[in-house]
Design goal:
heterodimer, A: 51 residues, 61% helix, rod-shaped, B: 741 residues, alpha+beta, 6-stranded antiparallel β-sheet, 50% helix, elongated
């Protein structure tokens, strides 16, 4: 059973990574404009046309 | 880099959305200035696709000294930042107007309020509760499964870890419920959040006590799981309400009308509509709406009165003509003299009628709240009874008595009740959205399900409400394409009708419009004209307003005739509405003869004509007094008060903004079939909600006695809670698949 001493912290740490990744995504505006982000990928304005 | 050329075609390039009708609101009073930068937030209407983002952001960044321009497609918000003083804010509105989108500025105050802080808090709480539920459940299952094999030391370790996760998580994600319960108790009332908060706090407290005593049973998992399920329901409900609020907010933005006042010394200043006094002289450029009632002093122009009268054909008016607030100037510059203030104008009257109607609507009590009103006292009484019974009658001691009472509160906690209505409404809303119906609020679905009478407006609802080409078969395909290439640059309703018939294509490169006459361009080197009969050199017939002429070089002029037609499936829809048990009526502001013909064609026996907006609401009030629950379908601004006053209301996607804002449902497309669909889905979802309540009641009828007898272990509580929530959700999902609920 002593393996639990490692396993539980590891499991919690991984879950915590997921949770903080979600918080980060929420804070950095990833969910602000889902529709616009889906459409924006079709635009290629960011490519240098070199005129 | 060359500056991006502004495309000649107006509106959404995908053709998903017709171009805006071109009212310009000067955003100058709404610009916020700080540190030499000017900021402005605009609500942009009609943006639908990547092409729209490119057009709008391209047109904005082409303005000098524009620092950032970003369009949020989900909310329709355009945020602009530029160096203050580089250009007049009116250029922004004019430029958006030129590429075919309408924009309304946001009040800085409204902008602050609008950021969805509540939604974010719920989402964070939901994430924390989800994290805690998953991890604590993992540990709890080990404890339950470990049974006899697990040593007390290991069990204690697992409980200890659970407590460290569950207590902070529950306190964090439960704040919404605790705060609401506390507010309710302070006012001497009890809402759904009181038993929830009590259950969660008791569960945590008892678990801590048990775990210190070295007991086997803790409820850490139940406390966080309960919060997790309830937060899902809260979050779904919040999103539905947010959408309804956004629609109302857009209407508010549109009412922030500004105008150009001509001062005594001849200079122009931009003023908000509220500051206009009777006697002021105002300049109305093509594309402007009259901000207040007044009379024309200079100029002659075509006017679009549809917002006020519902009449779609444009009228030509000159000096001395009366202008109602909301009338759109289509073609030439006008100078008008205000005769009333904004508050006394017709539009303000209609707004007040709308507000009155909405107040009566807000008295509706949601099904879930009605269920909660029954549920809360019963549960509290039973929990108290359990405690007293165990403590005094069974003499079981404080620990066991509190434990059993808490178990009852936990197991009867309204997970299923909290999810029952939102889950069904989200599924129903999603299904209607796919059929082209936008649902503004969850309780709108509940109200629509109860409706027994449906009242239609005529123009724009049963008919198209805008001119449609009727002599398509007399016109060659090439002629139509050529005429459409001219018509694409114009906002005149007849031009738009030609474009609608011709479909997507390019605008003629050198097309130019002469206000009030028509459009000129050259097609492959030959001069072409589209417009009034005398403009192209043809002989006009009697009905000059409903026709348009096209001439290519010296060829014979071709006549395009237009008419407002009934919608193709109007008769079928009226018949089906009758079949599903609704009484159909028609109210029209139009002349008696026109209304009679439509009513006869569609088989509507009850109809009235010549109704004013107030007469319509009075008629609806009378129907309500007779005990009918009325759904109103209408599109004009003149219908908006009756839409707000009706028990439930629908309006087509082409309707005036005020009507769309007042209606509970907005349906897209040329047909009326979505109305029948909406009613059937509303009825089906009401059935689902009631089924869910019935299920929750049955479940509680079994769970409560077990809990009161002290036979509920944490394992049983966990299975019962997640099981009932899942059944309720699955029952809601049944709505999405089949054609008929």
């Amino acid at each position: 059973m002593s393996v639990l001493v490692f396993l539980i912290p590891i499991a919690l740490f991984l879950g915590g990574v997921g949770l903080s990744a979600f918080f980060w995504a929420l804070k950095s505006g990833q969910f602000d404009d889902p529709k616009g982000d889906a459409e924006r990928i079709l635009l290629d304005d960011d490519l240098e046309m070199g005129d | 880099m060359t500056a991006a050329a502004i495309p000649a075609e107006i509106g959404c390039p995908s053709g998903l959305e017709p171009p805006a009708d071109g009212a310009i609101i000067d955003p100058a009073p709404f610009v916020r200035r700080a540190n030499g930068l000017a900021r402005l937030d605009l609500a942009v209407f009609g943006a639908k696709c990547a092409g729209c983002i490119r057009k709008i952001e391209g047109a904005m960044t082409a303005l000098p000294e524009m620092q950032s321009a970003r369009l949020n497609l989900s909310t329709g918000r355009l945020s602009l930042v530029w160096t203050d003083g580089a250009f007049s804010p009116r250029h922004i509105a004019e430029r958006l107007d030129r590429i075919g989108y309408r924009a309304a500025p946001f009040d800085p105050e409204a902008t602050e309020k609008e950021s969805d802080a509540e939604g974010r808090r719920l989402l964070r709480a939901l994430a924390v509760a989800g994290f805690a539920t998953a991890n604590v459940m993992l540990l709890s299952i080990s404890v339950w499964a470990g049974g006899g094999e697990m040593g007390p030391a290991t069990r204690e370790l697992l409980h200890w870890v659970s407590a460290v996760i569950a207590i902070p998580a529950a306190l964090y994600s439960g704040r919404t419920f605790f705060a609401s319960a506390f507010r309710a108790l302070k006012h001497g009332r009890a809402n759904m959040d009181v038993p929830i908060s009590l259950g969660v706090i008791l569960a945590l407290a008892i678990s801590v006590y048990e775990f210190i005593q070295g007991g086997a049973h803790t409820y850490f998992d139940a406390a966080v799981m309960l919060l997790f399920f309830l937060l899902i329901g809260r979050f779904l409900d919040h999103r539905l309400r947010l959408r309804a609020r956004a629609a109302a907010r857009d209407l508010l933005a549109l009412q922030a009308v500004t105008a150009s006042r001509i001062n005594a010394d001849g200079t122009l200043s931009s003023v908000s509509a509220r500051d206009i006094a009777p006697g002021d002289k105002l300049l109305l450029a093509p594309g402007d709406r009259a901000p207040v009632d007044g009379i024309i002093e200079e100029g002659e122009s075509s006017l679009d009165m549809s917002l006020v009268t519902g009449e779609s054909a444009p009228m030509r008016q000159g000096v001395g003509a009366l202008l109602h607030a909301g009338v759109l100037n289509l073609t030439a510059r006008l100078v008008m003299q205000a005769t009333k203030t904004a508050d006394a104008s017709l539009v303000a009257d209609l707004t007040r009628l709308i507000e009155a109607g909405e107040q009566s609507k807000s008295r509706y009590i949601k099904l879930a709240d009605r269920a909660a009103a029954l549920y809360v006292p019963v549960v509290h009484t039973l929990a108290l009874g359990t405690f007293l019974g165990w403590f005094f009658v069974m003499d079981a001691g404080l620990r066991v008595s509190v434990m059993n009472a808490a178990a009852l509160l936990i197991i009867t906690c309204p997970c299923a009740l909290g999810l029952a209505a939102p889950a069904v409404q989200v599924v129903a809303t999603g299904r209607l959205f796919r059929s082209g119906v936008l649902v503004k609020s969850g309780d709108a679905l509940e109200r629509l399900a109860e409706v027994d009478t449906i009242v239609f407006d005529k123009t724009g609802t049963l008919t198209f409400g805008r001119p449609r080409l009727v002599n398509r078969d007399q016109i060659g395909a090439e002629t139509l394409a050529a005429a459409a290439s001219l018509a694409r640059i114009s906002r005149h309703p007849l031009s738009r009708a030609i474009v609608a018939e011709a479909g997507a294509g390019r605008a003629a490169a050198d097309a130019a419009e002469t206000p009030g006459d028509g459009i000129e361009a050259s097609i492959e080197g030959v001069g072409a004209k589209l417009g009034r009969a005398d403009f192209v050199g043809a002989k006009s017939s009697d009905d000059a307003l409903q026709e348009s002429w096209f001439r290519l070089g010296d060829a014979d002029p071709v006549c395009f005739r237009f008419e407002d037609r009934q919608r193709a499936d109007a008769a079928e829809t009226v018949r089906r509405l009758g079949q599903i048990g609704l009484t159909v009526e028609m109210l029209s502001g139009d002349r008696c003869a026109a209304a009679e013909k439509v009513a006869a064609d569609l088989g509507i026996s009850v109809w009235r004509s010549g109704m004013s907006p107030r007469a319509k609401t009075i008629h609806l009030d009378k129907l309500r007094a007779d005990g009918a629950k009325v759904a109103m379908v209408g599109d004009g601004l003149n219908d908006a008060p009756s839409l707000a006053a009706a028990y439930a209301s629908l309006s087509p996607g082409t309707a005036a903004d005020a009507s769309q804002a007042a209606a509970d449902f907005v349906y897209q497309g040329d047909g009326l079939a979505p109305i029948v669909e909406a009613i059937l889905v509303a009825r089906a979802s009401r059935r689902r909600v009631l089924e869910n309540f019935l299920f929750a009641t049955i479940y509680n009828a079994f769970a409560m006695p077990l809990a009161a007898m002290g036979m509920v272990t944490p394992l049983i509580a966990a299975i019962a809670m997640s099981g009932s929530s899942m059944i309720v959700t699955l029952n809601a999902l049944r709505l999405s698949g089949r054609r008929r609920g």
